[in-house]
């Protein structure tokens, strides 16, 4: 997203500033196979990123062990993003389930589903009523990206799809810098004006979002 236009993995919004706030430990504990963090860790990272000046949050996390306390902390952190006008984009998850989480349910969050090269949802993408109602689909299959050694690699999944939405929002906001977060979010997620009733969100349409913004400011 913050790379160069002519790189092996071209960026969507060149020259934007990327703030990375890790929440996972470098090593796993006990029988865990994947690095993990608590909902409190994520909530703290959201608040710290916002206070550091982030205007768009890109999250690729899943809640493995839901709890009422953890969900409350996350909800308050996401409420803080809403109050500060920080758009929040989150991967829907790759478990192939039908449902939602404390993250994707939050009204301010834009959940993202991965789609294949034909624009169809990939089978392992999580779907649900809240995801279909306010989320977006984006490319998430055979995507070229850059690794830490500056070589290209091919990736897939909702974590890969989410930056397409984040980058499109960053580009749109750079074209309309005086727009509010609510205006940008509405243009990106509801540019067709049709009320959604399915569990599958529509494909990201950056050009339609641009036209909505341009018309509203003409």
Runs in which pLDDT lies below 50 for 5 or more consecutive residues are: none
The H-level CATH homologous superfamily, spelled out, is: Peptidase S8/S53 domain
CATH class descriptor name: Alpha Beta
Task: Look at the helices and sheets and give the structural class.
Answer: alpha/beta
CATH topology: Rossmann fold
> How widely separated are the two ends?
29 Å
Averaged pLDDT, please? Answer: 87
Give the strand line-up of the largest sheet.
1-2-3-4
For the biggest sheet, the summary is:
4 strands, parallel
What's the CATH architecture name? 3-Layer(aba) Sandwich
Describe the structure.
The strands form 2 sheets. The chain has a 4-stranded parallel sheet with strand order 1-2-3-4, sandwiched between helices. It has a two-stranded antiparallel ribbon with strand order 5-6. It has one domain: Peptidase S8/S53 domain (Rossmann fold, 3-Layer(aba) Sandwich), CATH 3.40.50.200. The protein has 7 helices and 6 strands. The chain has 218 residues and is an alpha/beta fold.
Question: Descriptors for this entry?
Answer:
Rossmann fold, 218 residues, 7 helices, alpha/beta
What's the structural blueprint in terms of helices and strands?
Blueprint: H1 39-51, E1 56-59, H2 68-84, E2 87-91, H3 102-105, E3 109-115, H4 129-134, E4 136-139, E5 143-146, E6 152-155, H5 158-175, H6 181-189, H7 206-216
Helix pairs in contact: 1-2, 6-7
Summarize the structure.
The chain is α/β, with parallel strands linked by helices.
